[in-house]
Amino acid sequence: MIHPIPPGTRDVLPDEMRELRRLQASLLGVFETFGYSEVRTPTVEYADVVSRGDEDLAGDAYRFFDDRGELLALRTDMTIPIARLVATRFGEVEPPWRLSYVANSYRAVTPQRARLREFGQAGIELIGVDGPDCIAEVVEILARSLDAVGLEKAVIGLGDADLWAALVRDFGGSEQTVGATSRRLAAHDMVGLGADLEECGEFAAARIETMLSLVQRRGGPDVLADCRGRGGERFESVLDRLEATCEAVSARDVGERIQLDMGMLRDLGYYTGPVLEVYDPSVGEAIGGGGRYDGLMERFGVDQPAAGFSLYLEPIHKAQLEQNGKAGSGVSDA
Q1: Which residues of the chain carry a pLDDT beneath 70?
Q2: Quick one: DSSP state of residue 290?
Q3: Domains, the chain, ranges and CATH?
């Protein structure tokens, strides 16, 4: 008799479970080597914690009432709960705080191929280190983590969450246009982005062409030089920050893993500076992401800079299988 499981969920059988445990152990070993202590937060949070962290992300949360009528939610990621944890439990501890985790998170998304409602994450959060060294340390650990799980060919994309908004504002765009077009860019919808820029009536055709050209530039440090002088003061300031970040990353001997991406925007709203996405040629989806999120800490009353990354365990395992000539999914698409 067949007993189906909910769409976007999966059973994990013994052989795969052993492989996943080895994957988790490898990542935790790297985190520990760099001085990151593992923590665990509840699977269930108060719904207002998730909303405070990211209002848009809260819309994907599984929410329900407990026996006292309190509105609860399954955690949608690990960064928001750790921000809450630091604000609540680390008040007497001097920063910086270096924390790591391996945990499942949950989102009430419409199931699509390889898109899970319950998914595994392993990552770090670095809270209390300012300047380019903060993201550089995160990138170094990310690179070493990828090496540890056998993904030496994985590419770490580096962008900045403020780059597009700075360009739009420099060219006279409204805050409404910033919001609408940012959603297009985060979804990699270049056709829709171009249409929105034309329809808003705020930009000349030549400027729209420049904007679309800039956000499609990817490559090494020379990309920054190509972008210089094409925006305004805000845009140049973000480029300065990206350049300083690249230099700090290169000083840690992991600069060759970085690919600059001028159009990178993550679909999480709490990032406030450099952002990261990780891709491996073995699979056609992101296997990790992260960045700087000072603004998130401020929402929980902690005036500290912060950055981190999360690696997605199922896509990483898939990449390992592809490299080894194996295949397998087990995800319910029903």
Answers
A1: 111-114, 326-334
A2: E
A3: 1-161+266-334 (3.30.930.10), 162-265 (no CATH)
